[in-house]
Amino acid sequence: MDKPELSPSRRDLILMTGVATVGAVAAIRPTAADLDEGGRASPVINVKDHGARGDGAANDTRAVKLALDRASALDSSSTLYFPSGVYRVSAGTLRIPDGHSTLIRGDGPGASRITFVEGETSSEPLVSLDALFSAVEDIQLDGTDAAGDSDLLVLNRGYTRVSNCLLSNSPGTALAIGKKGRALAHIVQNVVIRDAHGYGIRVHGATDEETTGSTDGLWSNVDVGRSGLSGVFLESSSQNMSNVHVWQSGVYADDPADQNGFLVITRSHIFSGCQAEKNHGDGFRFERGGGDGCVVSGSRIWENGGSGLVGVGAQRLTVTGSTFARNGRNNVGSSASPTDRSSAAIRNDGGDHWSITGCNAWDDEAELTAVNVPEDSSTPKIPARGGQMSQTFAYVETGESGSSVITGGVLRAEDQLSGRAVQSASPFLRISATDLGGDTVPSVAAATTLDLPPWGEVVKITGTAEIRSIRPGRPGRTVTLIFTSEGAAGLRGAGANLRLTTGFAPSVGGTITLICVDDSWREQSRTA
Length: 528
Description:
Helix content: under 10%
Largest sheet: 21 strands, parallel
Shape: elongated
Structural class: mainly beta
Strand content: 25-35%
Distance between the termini: 48 Å
Number of strands: 43
Radius of gyration: 28 Å
């Protein structure tokens, strides 16, 4: 049974309290960034020693700039320290210059906060790390009073880090990685992101200066909520994520394709122990070449407006040990369709070589409340759901030649709105050791050219039409056909691709076992 949902205010309080506690502990001891090469504590530059007031009213830009200039003039790395308080700083001021590794640190995100000067309009970021091994930790960056489209924090160099921070109310993207330089092997840990008007986190692709992008990021314990566009947007490959929770994304998105929890257009990512919850679009969406070689493991994808996971042309995607529950939340009311492919748990649009192992996809008739958007947003809310399913299929595949594999899962037909577990146009899909409920032994109507479902060791044949050919399937597949209708004409012995000893005209319950060899089906045995 699902736990009762926390209200956003309660959830935020719990998360921020936890982050603040970790930050408070971290702030009382030197970190790796505070030590020079000899193990000695690096200089700590206190912004209040340079005239910053931190009272939430004064413009502290000049004082912070003086402190930063002093830190940048040192020959060693240094710490720029913001004691408890609220500091108003003009956008673009806190830019750590190349060649001067600096740690920006506070007393915890519940104590130290940096925000914009009220009323100033800018597109420059609030904080930018342009030096290797620089970091931001134990602080809140907030954009409540900002005008313009500034990002809160930008990582532009390799080995930069953000940890134990709260990024809130960004007018643009909350955390932009590799926007104007390659942030190789960046670290994002113990970070809470709330109410960004743009993306929660965006890892930019190649720039004019760097052609390979910000690869090899390491993310852990990250919570991204109520982003205006997709919660996480990955334009650079090879991000490694653990315990990343993305929820209610897309609250300001005019484009339905940018309302997703995770929007991925690059390859070779690992998502471990992640959650995609109540996003206005899809939970995970891989497109434009995204998804190739990606792994989604031990994750929970639930109550999203669209599908749980979508791959458009994705190759070699691995999904293992994950749960898909009550997705397709927009598929409700009088316009609800039991066969709407955009409301499936997992949707493979033209991809190939997927491996789906040990997954569980289900829906029930639980009533669900609406997921609202801000009052100034034109984005439709996710509607309430009353006593009905909305997730249409456990797995949908639209390509006609894909050879993906599903094994060891629970994808029951009875737990989907359509009453079907799987819908696939490819005869090469392989399903084994999986509970499909009523679809475990599928049924198909007899036809002159018979299309067999790509799964099932036994298939029921209804109707009386004579079968003259069977669409080629996976080479080596063995299937037993059971004829369930009185007067069935059965199979013609010399059909177009049928290799039978003689024609087969069964009585009710008669069976014939065939094996697919090349493009033909050959008889192995029969019972009249």
